[in-house]
Write a structure and sequence with these properties.
272 residues; alpha/beta; Rossmann fold; binds adenosine-5'-triphosphate; Cobalt ABC transporter, ATPase subunit; ABC_transporter-like_ATP-bd
């Protein structure tokens, strides 16, 4: 998925994106990081063809979007978006139907629907709640239900808008573990959390005031404290990276190799 010199201005005149050019590497976990209002959600909507750019071109694996109805339907079969706010996505009377709905809309029936719904709900630990109305779920459960509804459709590309916002640490850990196991799926997630971007993304894009201001490997981009401060993401480097650098300076960890991205890896390095 690519954006080529994409600009987007809302009808009220707010310029949300200006000349953004970026390409999502296929099959990778990719973070879009930026402070509030930097244009992350707008970019997701453009990728899904919900908005058309004011200038520039949105491409899906090299092909520019034409916005014809059939093409948009095809695009939305391949690209799944999980909204930041679950209330924007949930519409069915029960948890089970919330997941089944998208499958029915695609012509799936009977036992196949049963199986796909069960698998998706079990993946997000909500199968036991399948008879409940979604509005009675907790916020974190609603977020996981939205993910299940999209996962059941087996998208090639998963767009996750702030996937861990509002989840407790246990849920966050299990969600990331689950997402790491989705082989072959390109995952693009938006966040303002440098620790999340560092530990989970393989590639990273930094948006600031609607512009793309950096991209690269998380360990390289997020290590630049002054730059991160300038673009409104605070001067704190990711905790694991910071500790690794301090321990290396103090000679507690032998130099060489790439920095660890998770606590477990840092501890393993310390234990030598
Ligand atoms: N419907 C709209 N009409 C007018 N302006 C909008 C609309 N939606 C978003 N904006 C503006 O567009 C800019 C980009 O918003 P967007 O939601 O894409 O940012 P974001 O990076 O996803 O922010 P957050 O991290 O807060 O979710 C902001 O200035 C926002 O106020």
């Amino acid at each position: 998925m690519e954006a080529v010199k994409v600009s987007f201005t809302y009808p009220d005149g707010t310029e949300a994106l200006r000349e953004v050019t970026l390409g999502i590497p296929e099959g990778k976990r990719v973070a879009l990081i930026g402070p509030n209002g930097s244009g992350k959600t707008t970019l997701f909507f453009l990728w899904l063809g919900l908005f058309r750019p004011s200038a520039g071109e949105v491409r899906f694996w090299g092909k520019g979007l034409s916005y014809r109805r059939g093409e948009l339907e095809e695009l939305r079969r391949k690209v799944g978006l999980v909204f930041q706010d679950p209330e924007d996505q949930l519409l069915a009377p029960t948890v089970w139907e919330e997941v089944a709905w998208g499958l029915w809309a695609r012509g799936y029936e009977g036992q196949l629907v049963e199986e796909k719904v069960r698998t998706a709900l079990q993946a997000v630990e909500l199968f036991d709640q399948r008879h409940k109305p979604p509005h009675l779920l907790s916020y974190g459960q609603k977020k996981r239900l939205c993910l299940a509804a999209v996962l059941a459709l087996e998208p090639e590309v998963l767009l996750l808008d702030e996937p861990t916002a509002g989840l407790d640490p246990g849920q966050t850990k299990r969600l990331l573990h689950f997402l790491s196991g989705l082989k072959g799926c390109t995952i693009v997630f938006s966040t303002q959390d440098v620790d999340l971007a560092y530990s989970f993304a393989e590639h990273l894009f930094v948006l600031w005031r609607g512009r793309l201001v950096a991209e690269g490997r998380p360990a390289e981009v997020l290590a630049q404290a002054d730059f991160m401060e300038e673009v409104g993401l605070g001067s704190d480097r990711p905790v694991v990276l910071r500790l690794y650098q301090v321990l290396k300076e103090k000679g507690k960890i032998s130099p060489g190799g790439s920095p660890p991205t998770r606590w477990e890896e840092l501890v393993a390095l310390l234990e030598g």
